[in-house]
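Consider the record:
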Amino acid sequence: MKNIRALARKTLVALAMPLSLVSIASAAEPIRIGSVLSITGAASYIGDPEAKTLKLYVDQINAAGGVLGRPLELVTYDDASDANKARTLTTRLAERDEVAVVVGGSTTGTTMAMIPVLESAQIPFMSLAGSVNIVEPVRKYVFKSPHTDRMGCEKVFADMKKRQITKIALIAGTDGFGTSMREQCLKVVGNYGIHILIDQTYGAQDTDMTPQLTKIKGTPGVQAIFNTGASGQGPAVLTRNYGQLGMKNIPLYQNPGVASKSYIELSGPAAEGVRLPAAALLVAAKLPDSDPQKPVVTGYTAAYEKASGQPVSTFGGGAYDGLMMVVNAIKKANSADPKKIREALEQTKGFVGTAGLVNMTDKDHLGLTVDAFRLVEVKSGDWNLVD
């Protein structure tokens, strides 16, 4: 009888051990990733797909066992497209939520408000916004995943040069991205032998750009129009007014900030023929099979559209790239320590994302070249690859 009891005790101990190990694993301290996004407000068309993307892939990563044996905990706040609110929420992430890293900042305005908080707290920040001013000058803890506004200028001007366009009209929104991209375009336009005959702006809340376009139409010699930047519905309003004024004989270029199917839907038939620089994600299915980005962009497209029931956008792609680079950095650092994650992010090499091939250095916290941009054109109500 004693032998039977002893054997029973041994069996219970043996059974308890793996259960204890499971309990320890499931109770592992999560790695907290913070995010402040413009899920509502004027830039919701950017922040909404970003938020959906981050949740989708954090859930997938956790279902596969997490990172370093620990689950990821995504702490997301909505700044409602307001820079002041973004700063306040970022302070909460740093001081109360004790996040290891932040992936977010949907717009240039909100990102620039977040930067001082995270630099001071020494928490690595992967921005999802467009301005080159985010990463130039280089800040120790600030990185970004999408192409810059200056790269967008260069891609458009190179195409204009191919088409022998030398005299153009510039127009831009007065929001953070619009102001920044206009400045960058003015800096590089002379390198392409292109002259700006008229330079116009419009406000974030403007619902009619007919006055500005009428001035452009009346300017002799204008061969193309370039809307160098704006968030919200401004670019679509501009495009509709352009069509209503019968200006289709003058090619219209848009900025990469409108690279989503919703722009085409909001602009209507007037969008036909519009060109802009965008990530390969926008034309995923139309890339040649030999393109190294194709498996990444088609895979993301399928996963996102299945999970959300919505068309893919380059903004969600930027969130995918940012999150995956952060996860890779945590693995490389073998730690959730913010300083070690920062060091590993700076060493990102050979990462193939939806934006292109990323190779970062201590002097380049973006790691993309102009060639990562694809030039696309609206044809038959859809995006098509030009080059």
Q: What stands out?
A: Confidence is low (pLDDT under 50) at residues 1-26. The two ends are 83 Å apart (CA to CA). Residues 2-26 form the longest helix (25 residues). The longest strand covers residues 195-202.
